[in-house]
Amino acid sequence: KAGVTQTPRYLIKTRGQQVTLSCSPISGHRSVSWYQQTPGQGLQFLFEYFSETQRNKGNFPGRFSGRQFSNSRSEMNVSTLELGDSALYLCASSLELTYEQYFGPGTRLTVT
Amino acid sequence: SQQGEEDPQALSIQEGENATMNCSYKTSINNLQWYRQNSGRGLVHLILIRSNEREKHSGRLRVTLDTSKKSSSLLITASRAADTASYFCATDAEDYKLSFGAGTTVTVRA
Lengths: 112, 110
What we know:
The complex is a heterodimer.
Chain A: E1 5-7, E2 10-13, E3 19-24, E4 31-38, E5 42-50, E6 53-57, E7 64-68, E8 74-78, E9 87-94, E10 102-103, E11 107-111
Chain B: E1 5-7, E2 10-14, E3 19-24, E4 31-37, E5 43-50, E6 55-58, E7 61-66, E8 71-76, E9 85-94, E10 97-100, E11 104-109
Parallel strand pairs in B: 2-11
Antiparallel strand pairs in B: 1-3, 3-8, 4-5, 4-9, 6-7, 7-8, 9-10, 9-11
């Protein structure tokens, strides 16, 4: 079974720009979660999607948004990038959120 | 604030020794999970323990859960250099949200 894939792996953007990150879950997994990881804040939950519905959202501003498609693939978008958005963005998929999570390798976003 | 908090923040041990780290959480949970992360990479699931379980084993890993104290421990026996990583606990106290602790960084010296 192919693992969770995330694209792109690395990204450099300028303040004020927007970015879209993509996540392809393991086949059959309907739950996709996104996390932001920084040295200062650790792993922070962004949101979780299940069957195209957002079921929960973390404490992030509205600049952070996401969606899930009918094939369970998910995207997250960050608009009006700030320097503090520089982080490793991780996507995880599972059969159900509270089950074992399978993480992708992450997208390293650098905002300059 | 994060639901789970790991202790200690960092741990350095000699190859072959055991490593123990703890996780404390604040509210009732259905299950608790432990993950490992090698430097700057995705997390790898290690073990899941349900709230009605007290102990679970997987290879060289042993996890205990004490719901009365709201705490869990992860023991890695006979450590190897490949065990050098950060270890996180995750809890599901809130619906459809997994909360991760700050992690314990383990360094295994050859």
